[in-house]
Amino acid sequence: MTDGAKERRIQAVKLADALNAIEGVPVSKYAKMLSQCWANGDLTGEQMKEALLASHYRLAAQEHSAHETMFSQEQ
Which InterPro entries has this protein been placed in (predicted)? Predict the structure, then answer.
């Protein structure tokens, strides 16, 4: 990756972080780490997306399991 491409990626990450902050959207440490890896050229955009989606699916499954446990205990 050229220095110019890396700098453009770094600026893109900064812009995305700023837009999320303006909108009040929290960004996880994991997502920030993935963005930094992408900016450095360690991950492709597709790899970053796949890792983030997998993380979100795991979180959703944990939430679903916790809600099922709470519901079954209430009955």
Answer: VbhA-like
pLDDT in tens, 41-72: 999 999 999 999 999 999 999 888 877 776 67
pTM of the shown model: 0.76
- The domains of the chain are located at 3-74
For 21-34, b where at least 16 C-beta lie within 10 A, e where not — what string?
eeeeeeeeeebeeb
Cα-Cα-Cα-Cα dihedral sign, residues 40, 46, 48, 51? negative
The tokens for 27 are 């960004």
Q: Helices (DSSP H) in the chain: which residue ranges?
A: 3-23, 29-39, 45-74
Q: Would you state the structure tokens that stand for residue 53, as one six-digit string?
A: 């989606």
